[in-house]
Amino acid sequence: MDQKIIGANLRRIREAKGWTQSQVADLAGISRVAYRNIENGSTIPKVSTLQNIASGVGVKLQDLFVPVRTLKKVRFRASKKMNSRDNILTEVARWLDDFNYLEKLLNDRKDYQFKTLTRKLSKMPKGVDRGKYAAEQARIELKLKEKEPIRDIAGLLESCGIKVYPLSLVSDGFFGLSVAKEDGGPAVIVNIWERISVERWIFSAAHELGHLLLHLDAYNIEESAEDEDQENDANVFASHFLMPEEAFKSEWDETYGLPFVDRVLKVKLIFQVSYKTVLYRLSESLGNWIWGKFQIDYKLRTGKTLSIKDEPEALLPDKFLQAPEVLRSQEPHSISSSHFVENRLSRLVRKTIEKDEITMSRGAEILRLNLEAMRDVVSSWV
Q1: Under-50 pLDDT residues of the chain
Q2: What is the pTM of this model?
Q3: 149 and 31, same domain (yes or no)
Q4: Strands, sheet with 74-75, edge to edge from the N-terminal-most edge strand
Q5: Which of 311, 336, 365 lies at the terminal end of a domain, its last residue?
Q6: Residue 287 · residue 268 · CB < 8 Å
Q7: What pLDDT shows up at residue 341?
């Protein structure tokens, strides 16, 4: 029993929940001093005591014994301070370790497709043009047609050697992060909290791909503040990756006879992006007045006023505990969560279970499911 590992896990879990040592001690039915000594690693606790602590903080007993791998080559920036940052990084490290373990077990690794492009981009001058060029070249590398919308970004990223992890985190200040190849990636992690629109999930995945291609020199675990220039670069990349210039212009021109709001909504549905992404692209050529125009026209049609940060037709917070599928922050004519599904890890788990390389319970652990849910998954395989 390694007291230091147990103590580090307890501190990480406690701080993520915003609890004091006294609060955790009370939940576990022990004194604050006794808990403090366990967290500090100065005493060897009984298994029964650890079981009470684990139960009190809402984790599995085994979670207290798992060594925490420290990720270093990570780009994890958020617009707000996050108490759960360490917990997220720990979860991502475990997920990556499981993913790489299965790939090695099956000898089924995907080569990262953008190594040459990344090196080429690193030698180019920074700026908007580099982001646009990166988007164009990434689409060529993926053999996407000039006017082809991206229908399955998670599957597309997985096909070119990027691991995708849909992680649900209650936060409106964190949309995603990415991990470099040196740390078990490349990987893209997207916050799929149900009150974030699916359109935002898709954009976040493309945004993180932009960082992987453009900003590998900024992958440093010590950095947590957003860099405005780098964020803008990634936004330019994402918008042009999802909506190529010629395709966007063609589809926009096709809607010429429609009212402005209808034009924006139709184009957004074609490319499965946010209405904001469409307005952003229009503002590049028409100017920022386009944002106000959309707001005024939308209010005339719906009676609702939108701020830049709002998503149209979003449900109020008091609706949160009702009908989960409609709780997600809604775009006008929003798309469903089925438009963002990763499946490579699930496929690897199925293969290893069918080959008796891992148990069903281990598969459940890797997929972050309980055993009953895993049995349902296995029984559904055809």
Answers
A1: 313-328
A2: 0.81
A3: no
A4: 74-75, 176-179, 187-191, 163-167
A5: 311
A6: no
A7: 62
